[in-house]
Amino acid sequence: MSRGVSRNIVLIVAAIIAIIIIGIAIYFVTMPKPVEVKEIKIGVVLPLSGKLAETGADLKRGIEFAIEQINAAGGIKSLGGAKLVVVYGDSAGKPETGAAEAERLITEEKVVAILGAYQSAVTKTVSEVCERYKVPCLNPDSTSPALTERGYKWFFRTTPHDEMFAAQHVEFVKWLNEKFGDQIKRIAIIHEDTEWGAKCAEAWQKHFSEAGFEIVKVISYHAATVTSLDSEVDALKAANPDLVLAACYVSDAILFVQTCKARDFNPKAILAMDAGFINPSYVQQVGELGFYIFSREVFNWDLFEKMPKLKEVNDKYKSKFGVDLNGNSARDYTGVWVLYYAIEKAAKKASPTNLEEFRKAIRDALATLELSADEIIMPWDGIKFDAKGQNILGKGIIVQMMPQDGKYHTVYPPDLATVDVVFPMPTWAERGS
User: Fold this and answer.
1) What is the DSSP string of 152-189?
2) How far is CA 65 from the centre of its chain?
3) Average of pLDDT values for 201-228?
4) Helices then strands, each counted (H, E), the chain
5) Coil, strand or helix: which one is 296?
6) What's the confidence (pLDDT) of residue 113?
7) Which of 105-119, 275-289, 319-333 has the highest mean pLDDT?
8) CA distance 9 to 11
9) Quick one: DSSP state of residue 389?
10) 3-state helix vs strand vs coil in the chain, percent to 5
11) Are the C-beta atoms of 188 and 220 separated by less than 8 Å?
12) CA-based nearest residue to 400, from 302, 310, 309, 328
């Protein structure tokens, strides 16, 4: 090969290399820059006005505290520290309003997921909207069993539901009978008439009847308009039950207890399905009238010694807000963290810049998420959702309000109890109140 030909080949190769280098340079100069994500918006639907506004404020405190802790710890690390931001929708306690707010949060605010909405009747409509728009809906605190029986693919619930709680109530009452000599045989039920209250009553009737207890009275009332429970309590008194099971929101829970005192109604025990009975406003307003009443719970402050992480979180929470965490605020606090873990997992699979794909990635992350008991502050075995979207590792406890400090103390199950149970509850005359 002549020197001239060799030189030409070298020049050609050099030209090709130069073209490749220039092409690569042009590609990197002109390629789209990664979009920096500074925040991820989640929607929250709560009753921030209306009769349940105080409960909504309580739930909001738990949510805000979780958001504050997540962002202070570095935000969403899979997205370079993007902050988690909450956009609120006020259901005002109405299912139709909650649905409209959910749609606004999805279509206008472009949230990646929705958390809420406390009342089962509102959660029902909110989750319907989320299912239609294919947006993950995480529910921390609605307990109607029907919510996870609809075949939905975008709905997930962290709290146990009322079928699970009702079954545990039967176990608790059997335990009381074993301990105190078969004093409970006759059961009465009083409940508000929305989705939640009605499903509580159904679950109670089913489980207590199957266990051989006699259901002597079931009373339903309309919580939205109730101003007196005199006739309802009189009917309960006439039925002469050993145990009354109560499903009430906060204002009617207060009214119910005050009316029991006013009408001198003295069952051996009252067992509530939390809700209004654990609200700080209820505890404050009923005062000593609430002593010895039982409530099912999913959390309680006196578990600190058994759950060090709970004590650490509660100390900070109380320092900020002046109140302890309760079953409502603790469940919504936990719900935010569950959603956060799902978002972290989803961010490794999809980009928030494609909202549709990112929402689906969050849904998929929730469906496969597993958290241990040590990763949450609830007295549960952890978080793991079944095919219906129900956390199968949740469980309940039974608490009783005690006169020594006016607080609820855990009395069941025995391995979590911090004080001895008081049964039967003293009559109003015995209390001298």
Assistant:
1) -SSEEE-S--HHHHHHHHHHHHHHHHHHHTS---EEEE
2) 15
3) 94
4) 13, 14
5) strand
6) 98
7) 105-119
8) 5
9) S
10) 50, 15, 35
11) no
12) 302
How does pLDDT run across 14-45, given as a tens digit for each residue?
Answer: 667 767 776 665 655 444 444 578 999 999 99
Q: What gap in Å lies between CA 233 and CA 262, rounded to an integer?
A: 10
Q: Is the peptide bond before 25 cis (omega within 30 degrees of 0)?
A: no
Contact assessment for residue 236 and residue 265, using Cβ atoms and an 8 Å cutoff: yes
Which residues are CB-neighbours of 19 under 8 A, at least 6 positions away? none
Of 255, 253, 257, 254, nearest to 265 by C-alpha is: 257
Query: Hey, how many other C-beta atoms are within 10 angstroms of the C-beta on 114?
Result: 28
Burial letters 126-137, b for 16+ CB under 10 A, else e: bbbbbbebebbb
pLDDT one-digit tens code per residue, 372-395: 998 999 989 999 999 999 999 998
User: Which pLDDT score, from 0 to 100, does residue 191 have?
Assistant: 97
Give pLDDT tens digits for 42-63: 999 999 999 889 999 999 999 9
Q: What's 36's DSSP letter?
A: P
- % the chain with pLDDT above 90: 77
pTM: 0.78
Q: Which residues contact 77 (CB under 8 A, 6 or more apart)?
A: 344
How far is Cα 31 from Cα 259, in angstroms, rounded to an integer?
A: 72
Residue 115, SS3? Answer: strand
Q: At 78, list the tokens.
A: 């899979």
Give how far Cα 247 sits from Cα of 251, 254, 280, 403, Å.
12, 12, 17, 23
Work out the mean pLDDT of the chain and round it to a whole number. 92
Token pair for 7: 């030189």
